[in-house]
Write a structure and sequence with these properties.
about 170 residues, alpha/beta
Length: about 170
């Protein structure tokens, strides 16, 4: 059975749903949770940069972005922590700065000794998936531990109860 869940969140509605379901699963399984948020680097991503320039026009811009990202991360993680605490689920929070989100997620899972990653999928298809990519897909492709993907659902669908799996395979409706 799973004992330590890593739950990455970006604050989207889909990620908030994944947080809620992870809390239910952890409560049913007697597991603990590490909520995790990857702060984007304020510099331009190396794969997008034309000349490796980054954001060097004004050094204070990086500081302002870093402070804003840190405050946002603290807010997201605090909301998740309060939800887990209300359900009696032990948890901690972690944030890092990394332009490669999936690598940060995998490193956090390894460093914290997690045995399951629970994350949302935005369900992008076609050109959007090709251009924007999918952090969930990258995590699935590279993870050495199981990954429970919480899919997007219809806006009018009620949250389904999550119970601890008996087979060791986690499935979310």
């Amino acid at each position: 059975m799973f004992r330590h869940l890593l739950v990455p969140t970006d604050g989207s509605l889909l990620a908030k749903d994944a947080v809620a379901r992870a809390v239910q699963l952890a409560q049913a399984a007697g597991a603990r949770i590490t909520f995790f948020h990857v702060q984007d680097s304020p510099a331009i991503h190396p794969e997008v940069s034309l000349f490796g320039e980054g954001m060097v026009l004004d050094p204070l811009i990086n500081d302002h972005f870093a402070q804003a990202h840190a405050a946002h991360a603290e807010q997201l993680l605090n909301q998740a922590r309060l939800q887990a605490e209300a359900a009696g689920v032990p948890c901690d929070t972690l944030t890092t700065i990394n332009p490669t989100i999936y690598e940060a997620i995998l490193a956090a899972a390894s460093d914290r000794g997690c045995d399951l990653i629970v994350m949302a999928s935005h369900g992008r298809r076609g050109l959007a998936a090709l251009l924007l990519g999918s952090e969930t897909q990258r995590v699935l492709t590279h993870a050495a531990i199981p990954v429970l993907v919480i899919p997007a659902r219809a806006p009018d669908a009620a949250p389904a109860a999550v119970s601890a799996p008996k087979s060791g395979v986690a499935v979310s409706p």
